[in-house]
Known about the structure:
The chain is mostly helical. The chain has helices at about 1-55, 60-90, 95-100, 100-135, 145-160, 200, 205-245, 250-270, 275-290, 300-315, 320-325, 325-395, 395-420, 425, and strands spanning about 165-180, 185-195. Helix 4 packs antiparallel against helix 8 (about 250-270), helix 7 packs antiparallel against helix 8 and helix 8 (about 250-270) runs antiparallel to helix 11. Strands 1-2 form a two-stranded antiparallel ribbon. The longest helix is centred in the last third of the chain and has 67 residues, at about 325-395.
Amino acid sequence: xxxTNLSEIDLxxxxxxxxxxxxTTAAFIIEGVLLPILxxxxxxxxxxxxxxxxxxxxxxxxxxxxLLKCLSIFDTVFLACILLQYSLPTLSEEYYIWVLxxxxxxxxxxxxxxxxxxxxxVVAVAVERxxxxxxxxxxxxxxxxxxxxxPIILFSILYxxxxxxxxxxxxxxxxxxxxxxxxxxxxxxxxxxxxxxTNLRRDPAYxxxxxxxxxxxxxxxxxxxxxxxxxxxxxxxxxxxxxxxxNISSAHRRDNTMARLLMAxxxxxxxxxxxxxIVNFYEALQMVRYGSLSEHPAWIMLLVKVNHLLLTINSAxxxxxxxxxxxxxxxxxxxxxxxxxxxxxxxxxxxxxxxSARYRSRYNSRVNGSxxxxxxxxxxxxxxxxxxxxxxxxxxxxxxxxxxxxxNGDNAKHSCDIxxxxxxxxxxx
Length: 429
């Protein structure tokens, strides 16, 4: 009997060790390798999106462009905090011990604020596209998008303001004894920072109705229903407009293109937030049925890691969606990387063309000058012979000479207006 119990205990310990190993390995691969790469790519991509949406060549309505910029800013803040909260502690033990307990009471609420802002920015984009596509003849600019953006920012901050009071940093005292070679024992006291849940977070009613149930409705169920309904109405309107494609204006076609872009964003959003909805639903169900949240099973803990990865992908992939679905966004974005090269080649080509033009101008001028000189010389000799003949036939030498000089003077002035360096050639007789 005792041997059976010992074998069961050993098997349980072995399973526990394997679970810890798998959990550590999964955490390192997801949060230590994949998360930093995707977050860095997403931060750079979102900043490029903000820069691109500021360009008029994208040809977007101000309200729509400002909403997409707002979404990119929320995603950038979210990705930066994800790096600080989950990636760096996995990569550095010193950071996990000495830095994370101090920043978590601030970074974790900011993560929730930016995530809420990102979710409802997508909802606002869907509302704006719904009004634009389904009611194209109604002007609803909402002050260039500020009518959407300001309520989103205020709601995101106010809804998550209480999270600044859920976690606090406490200090644990640990005493260590050091034995030296001479046998002397010296006690060293080390104070470690640690994270602790506040009384508000431990309150059963707050945990049940606010943290889990309300969070599941506000951040999971409500956005999914709104996006699904609006997306369906937009798709139906686009399908009707496609049947009369030749009868709609280019502006309406542009709006339909942006609506299709929104559909891609919503599909990615629903896919990447699916794990978060599952985890929130599980926690809300546990709180409603049992009144408390027991220790998470292994599959939930793994799903939490995958959830962090998918949320990072959702915040980082927008630039890929924009570039794939909108050729104008793609052309403006790529022009930023081609600008320096194009400017250099343009300057070189202009220099070459100007140099070639100068060379051809000088060559043509010389050829024309030589021919003009030969023409004037022959003309002058003919006129001289005419004058010489007239001198023999009459006694009007002075009058003829004056008339000859006036004629050649007019030719010189006309030639000077064409090429300045030909003046001496024309006037030298």
